[in-house]
Give the backbone structure.
Amino acid sequence: MKIKLAENYGFCFGVKRAIKMAENEHGAATYGPLIHNNKEIDRLKVNFDVSLKNDLSEFESADKVIIRTHGIEKNELQVLNDKKVNIVDATCPYVTKPQQIVEEMSLKGYDIVIFGDEEHPEIKGVKSYAQGNVYVVLTQDELELIPLREKIAVVAQTTRKIENYLTLVNHLITHHKEVRVFNTICNATFENQDAARALAKEADVMIVIGGKNSSNTKQLLSIAKESCKDSFLIESSEDLDLTWFKDKKLCGITAGASTPDWIIMDVTQQIKNI
Amino acid sequence: MKIKLAENYGFCFGVKRAIKMAENEHGAATYGPLIHNNKEIDRLKVNFDVSLKNDLSEFESADKVIIRTHGIEKNELQVLNDKKVNIVDATCPYVTKPQQIVEEMSLKGYDIVIFGDEEHPEIKGVKSYAQGNVYVVLTQDELELIPLREKIAVVAQTTRKIENYLTLVNHLITHHKEVRVFNTICNATFENQDAARALAKEADVMIVIGGKNSSNTKQLLSIAKESCKDSFLIESSEDLDLTWFKDKKLCGITAGASTPDWIIMDVTQQIKNI
């Protein structure tokens, strides 16, 4: 049986970069989980002495903090600086960008609209950089309730769909004189999905590796099933079932955005051994 | 028979303003026809001694030139200034705005995209204010051929439809990091159309006054006919036909964007006399 990996799978650029930074910071602690994968968090602890702290108060002077890809709020950064904590900033550059835009545009007098989930850490961080009016919305109904002024700058959560962003932006353009639109959407999630879709068309069995509760992974599974009915979700090689591969010619493999490469390589090796 | 005028009809704000300015400038000449209506141009000549010149070379020092609503190109303005011609600027404020935006944005390093007709005087004028890269497009196909850089500012011809503008703008937002969108569309044309549509639903005969070759007027006629089959296009009261009004209860009246009020009033009076 042949094995083929999707053209894009697993960690995005920002997460890969953050993991690499963490591996070089022995004795540091991440502020919040670096990724949604306990096995990877354990590996960083065991192999690189990088621990996890969930509360800002746990950090003390001379500690080393790793800021995760989502970024943090501006006042939290201030607290860490005031405490003289050493900061390793692994904020994804695709998240730093909207933080900078929001700060610059609000200093220039623009009302800020953020398309995203108010409760998401990335958006809490981005929003905190506004110096004036700032509104977080997900729907046009929410947008219509906002008393916006004439000059508006708008950014999006990195993981949102462009189609939905355009719906909101079009409403703004139609009703306001100037709208400064920043395309802050990152295509990593969609590239993984497109690659899974393409591979599922060739493969006669598809293995999707990722958390069983990860919405990202479940979406990959559902995309794979559209073209390949024999698509299976596993968290690691232990979940593999030999019967899946009987009489199959091409096994396609993809992985969710929180699945580390070493788990993917292990699964690939196990399937090769079948 | 009752007579009802559409809630919006005839001249837009900019044309009304230009005519009023011309009426106060005895001895002046407009550079190009002030509106697409020969009767109105004759009236300005006969009653207010305002003539028409079609070539820049016809203006001499101490002459008085009236710049029409469409505006003119920046270098033409320079020629007039160099000649010390007295300038009465009747450029519509809705046209001055995109001229200023194009100048300011191109000085700030933005590539400029103008949604409009390259041959239209308004667009020739607006385009002439660019200090750097500037592209005039009407379709997405044209847009895709342009080698745009990352920062883009976009304006629209005042008479374009917002839906078509959004199509181009959405393409830009999807493919570029920053798009600064200025909504420079003026609603006057669409307000006349909406008012004609509403009135035609009530009326049992509709009179549309305007040039028989005016696309603007023909569009009003076609909108009126959607709800009122007895809709007629006339250029002046001489075109009225008594049989149209037999057994009718409500006559609706609207007029194209180049139809002066005095023609509309004359038609209204003649119908009242029937």
